[in-house]
Specification:
Radius of gyration: 16 Å
Distance between the termini: 26 Å
Number of strands: 9
Helix content: 10-25%
Shape: globular
Strand content: 35-45%
CATH architecture: 2-Layer Sandwich
């Protein structure tokens, strides 16, 4: 299943430090949780969506309800919690594993159907929200090779582009975090 966490951050003075924490501490801690298989973090290129997106491949909702997830910081942003805005969490079926998005690619997400992604020449994977907020109920994701010219301003409403902030962490290759 695919677990998504989306949010924006309201304190520009501490945003760089928060991003280091999330990318270098939180993601490695989460990937060390039994039932997490991949984790990758993104920054939005398009307007109309939260600034940040994390996509995790997990076994199911039980992973997010377990003590190990909570002990390793799941659902909590530590001292930055008060600056987190527009926070959304969803659990989707339809994909077992999230695709790894490389440094030369964008992640394209659509909440309005696969058509706009197909119009861009992309192959869209369908996801259905089954737990947590369950909104949007359906999403389609696709990889997009970074074009020479920006495309974010030409996207239809409901389609957003993201650039990877981290490589995709995998359980087998994750650093061990001791707490």
């Amino acid at each position: 299943m695919i677990y998504t966490v989306e949010c924006s951050f309201a304190d520009p003075a501490s945003e760089a430090e928060w991003n280091r924490f999330y990318s270098l501490e939180k993601l490695p801690a989460l990937i060390s949780v039994r039932g997490f298989h991949t984790s990758q973090r993104f920054s939005a290129l398009s307007a109309g969506c939260p600034s940040y997106l994390a996509i995790h491949s997990i076994d199911g909702l039980g992973v997010l309800q377990g003590d190990e997830y909570l002990q390793k910081g799941g659902g909590n942003f530590a001292r930055w919690q008060r600056h987190i805005t527009d926070w959304h969490r969803n659990l989707y079926d339809g994909l077992d594993r999230a695709p790894a998005i490389g440094v030369d690619e964008y992640l394209a997400l659509s909440a309005i159907g696969p058509g706009p992604l197909a119009d861009m020449g992309l192959v869209a994977c369908s996801m259905h929200a089954v737990a947590l907020e369950k909104a949007p109920e359906y999403r389609w994701l696709a990889r997009l090779k970074r074009p020479a010219e920006p495309v974010a301003e030409h996207l239809p409403a409901g389609v957003h582009l993201y650039v990877p902030m981290t490589q995709q962490l995998t359980r087998d290759a994750a650093p061990r975090i001791s707490r």
